[in-house]
Amino acid sequence: MKRLLLALLLPTLGIVLLSLAAGEWLTRPARALLGPPPADLVGQAVHIRVGDAGQASGWFLPGRAGEGAVLLLHGVRGNRLQMLERARWLQREGLASLLIDLPSHGESSGDRISFGRREAAGVDAALGWLRTQLPGERLGAIGVSLGGASLLFAQRRPELNAVVLESVYPTIVDAVRDRLTTRLGPAGAWLAPLLLVQLPLRLGLDVEQLRPIDAVASVRAPLLIAAGTEDRSTRWPETEALYAAAPAPKTLWPVPGAGHVDLHAFATPAYEARLGPWLHARLRMPPR
């Protein structure tokens, strides 16, 4: 009987310890030293105050007057480098851009990754900085995965004239289940609760506070939602559900064959042909 109990308890204990280690890694800050913008770019490093003691670091690339500006927000455990090629393209198009490291990423402050909820404070600070620097310009934002969730949770989002969401999870329950089943097969769905139960302990958040699908209902700017049709981390039906929850005006762009990847890198000509005119139409000031 003791051997049977040990045979049952040891694997269970191993699974619990593994889930705790995974929870620690997933929420641990993803630091990186990035320094000034690449030498070939016309831009500057910026450090934006977040709250009373925090800071969001980034790069600002100026554009042509009247063309608008775009806030670029990277994915989980990434940093502003993930958005650099988009910034290069936008500058060629005449649009200004601000690339920031979200809280707990890159060179920005923060003690835990919170899957968009606390990262939203960095988005708010960045939008405030852009509005101060470019008072007469229309503002847009492109948020990838975590960046899109952070954008939806931001309080200053209503100030935007255009919103692009790429590969954004609808709920944290979906996000955890999808990623575990992708890696572990059907057993992942059974293990997901072991990670989700750690949210209140590690972050002081519960699953109901991490539902971008609820926040998207309050978007008032023109919205474009894009995702890969082969994305296994945010499955296409989940993207369709996010789109269905959003108010008009809205556009849905399925990227054929793409997984949970950088959509700009995956389909550069199609991405730029689709988003370029869409952004210009919403951010360019009309001639006087």
Report on this model:
The chain is globular, with a radius of gyration of 20 Å. About 40% of the residues lie in helices and about 20% in strands. The mean pLDDT is about 95. The chain has helices at about 1-25, 85-90, 120-135, 145-155, 170-185, 185-195, 200-205, 210-215, 235-245, 265, 270-285, and strands at about 30, 45-50, 55-60, 70-75, 95-100, 105, 140-145, 160-165, 225-230, 250-255. Strands 2-3-5-4-7-8-9-10 form an eight-stranded mixed beta sheet, sandwiched between helices. Strands 1-6 form a two-stranded parallel ribbon. It has two domains: about 45-170 and about 210-285, Alpha/Beta hydrolase fold, catalytic domain (Rossmann fold, 3-Layer(aba) Sandwich); about 170-210, no CATH class. The chain is of the alpha/beta class. The chain has eleven helices and ten strands. It comes from Pelomonas aquatica. Keywords: Hydrolase. InterPro entries: AB_hydrolase_fold, DNA-binding_regulatory, Hydrolase_4. One of its GO terms (molecular function) is hydrolase activity. This is Alpha/beta hydrolase.
Salient structural properties:
single chain, Rossmann fold, 11 helices, Hydrolase_4, 2 domains, hydrolase, globular, DNA-binding_regulatory, 288 residues, alpha/beta, two-stranded parallel sheet, 8-stranded mixed sheet, Alpha/beta hydrolase, AB_hydrolase_fold
Which second-level CATH architecture of the largest domain applies?
Answer: 3-Layer(aba) Sandwich
Q: What's the pLDDT, averaged over the residues?
A: 93
Task: Compute the number of structural domains.
Answer: 2
Q: Write down the secondary-structure element order.
A: HEEEEHEEHEHEHHHHEHEHH
By CATH reckoning, the class of the largest domain would read: Alpha Beta
Unreliable segments of 5+ consecutive residues: none
User: Using DSSP, what is the number of strands?
Assistant: 10
Strand order of the largest sheet: 2-3-5-4-7-8-9-10
CATH superfamily of the largest domain: Alpha/Beta hydrolase fold, catalytic domain
Radius of gyration using CA atoms only: 20 Å
Main sheet record: 8 strands, mixed
Helical residue percent band: 40-55%
Q: Treating each run of at least 4 consecutive H or I residues as one helix, how many helices?
A: 11
The assigned structural class equals alpha/beta
Portion in strands: 15-25%
User: CATH fold name of the largest domain, please?
Assistant: Rossmann fold
How far do the termini sit from each other?
A: 86 Å
